[in-house]
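Entry 12.
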Amino acid sequence: MHRSVRLPMLASLALVALGGIAQAQQQPPQAPNTTFFVTSSGPGKGAELGGIEGADAHCQKLAATIGAGGKTWHAYLSSNTNLAAPDKTVNARDRIGKGPWQNVKGDVIATSVDDLHNDTSNKINTNTGLTERGQKIPGVGYILNAHDMMTGSQPDGRAFPGNMNMTCNNYTSSTFGKVEVGHVDRTGLADTAQAHSWNSSHQSRDCSQEGLISTGGNALFYCFAVQ
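Predicted 3D structure (tokens):
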């Protein structure tokens, strides 16, 4: 009689244990020393991120899931040049701190702002441009190519001239303009510096989620911890 009671209890305990293991496996890895990652997902509205402030908040939210939320996180995004108030123009390179930066695995991707914007020395590529969960972004050669990272930036990390809407109205619209993107896998359709650029390879078709996907993206962007 004791055995017949004990078996159901053991079975129940086993199910609870398995459930706990499955839940633990679904949790993001804890990597509090992370200072750089690619967003694993966007807010779901294409390039409409709620402005640069909304993008920063998204970086902060994702960082918190891996125990790195104690740092201040900024999205690597430039605004359109403000011709009426040039001092209010936002350059991506000026808002990410001084470095160095490392991914969730501890790989250093750049030691300084200048190093980050030196194509021969920065280490962003398929194996290091990881999400906050440590996942690789599918790029050229995958069935689904999502290597486009929204930056709105020129190769030097600065904003485009004000007559060029390369930021989807400063990341507030999914219907107006286009956005400049870079290739996190440093690979494109041609063997050129532009195709290999991590931050300024080409412009999107438009600002919608579908438009970003159609040109090789998924509304993802880079996040940096401000040192």
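Annotation: The mean pLDDT is 88. Helices lie at 2-26, 51-64, 113-116, 168-171, 209-214.
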